[in-house]
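Box S1 | Example of a co-folding query
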Amino acid sequence: MPHMQFLEESLIELITQTSTNLPPDVREALGIAIVGETPDTQSAQALSIIASNIDMAAQDEGPICQDTGMPTFVVHTPVGVNQIALKKSIHAAVAEATKRGKLRPNSVDSLTGKNSGNNLGEETPVIHFEQWEREEIEVKLILKGGGCENKNAQYSLPCELDHLGRAGRDLEGVRKCILHAVWQAQGQGCAPGAVGVCIGSDRAHGYDLAKNQLFRTIQDVNPVPELARLESGIMEEANRIGIGAMGFGGKVSLVGCKIAAANRLPASFFVSVAYDCWAYRRLGVHLDAASGAITRWLYRDPARPVQRMAEGEGLPLTGREVVLRTPLTEDQVRGLKVGDVVLVNGEMFTGRDAVHAHLVKHPLPEGIDLHGAVLYHCGPVMLKQGDSWSVKAAGPTTSSREEPYQADIIRKFGLRAVIGKGGMGSKTLAALEECGAVYLNAIGGAAQYYARSIEQVLGVSLLEFGIPEAMWRLRVNNFIAIVTMDAHGNSLHADVEKETGARLGALQSRHALQAAEKTPN
Ligand code: SF4
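Box S1 (continued) | Returned holo structure for iron/sulfur cluster
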């Protein structure tokens, strides 16, 4: 096999573009969502920030979202191409892209908890090889983050589903599973999302095939008529549930639904759903098999240059925003209510899973005081330049993971605000009310938008947990977020979950009635 001198650079370019520049079909779908959302709602505000973030990421070649996911490559090679050498080049490209800040160090040893720092490790990255009878190499890449990955769902039919009743072993049962999967994701998977679905297969391969559907373009029509009908039916129904962007309640919950059917064992009937967020990052290239040079980009049309997503520069401020400066007082915080838009100024600390698990058992690191402080659920992408750190991407992570710890930490250290995405549960809500604190929802995935709100990295503690899990001390300027859980026992997340559940139930009753009317006596 000839030495492919351009291979590694081509792969680095593929990773960089996938992480930083959303493909045209996803942009188009999000553009339709933006136009379709009710103006001046929280969902519309979230979409406006998302649009700006997409532009900023492409302009600066920064990660669209700080969670660059589990890099998953699907590679087709002509007969005779050395797949071992290709795998080595993919590994080298992943490590280099991480070093350049295009991927967050995201690979953690499951036994020791140690972050490898370069996105390499046991079974990381994921690479699927296939041979084909063409002359070029095709490499497709999807970067799907943990927030949406955690909202994947697999159903074994028949089963009982909240608000939808019994799902049987037929397409009607499959329909119910997919709607349920969209509903249960709420805002935690950074809606509006897209789902790849596999009907059948076994548990393990079903998930693979579901994820593989996310490589189809959003506008692609399924060649199997029943599946094409199911895909468009799901799009129509899911967008009547009312989850909205970030689960704030709104018109657009889903931007894509792609379904495959695979044979199954007679005893099993699985429906596997891969939920992807709005930061639906997948691209592909064709490579010259002799040189490794890129000969063609997939998903892109050279005749259609990248268009800006946002109309203006980010979210236009209305003057009604509440300006907060840390440390926050109890009075200030108790004066906030669900729906208020706030601009946070001053110092802020980051903390994710490792920090929360640590703080419930240990004192704060030396020199840190959290009285009146704001804790940001965020695992940023940081690069060290000399002795100082710079922020490359810094959007919120899913807060529900911290639910087992958050109430204790609020009580123990006197926090006044927690920022994250997707909301938290009843234990945290009770602690907010008792102690006088609020939960602020930042816009999930808006990593570039928020990175620009961070003026300075003031320090870092617990760096031994790895860059994303460390406790970063930041100075922020006008960091925008929405109060979604207040100190008076109100939670927008609980309300939206209840309302969307009721709508799902009503949708199902109507659907069953229509089906009964169509059935001949
Ligand atoms: S946009 Fe949200 S769900 Fe998607 S990768 Fe980023 S944080 Fe995770």
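The radius of gyration is 23 Å. Residues 492-518 form the longest helix (27 residues).
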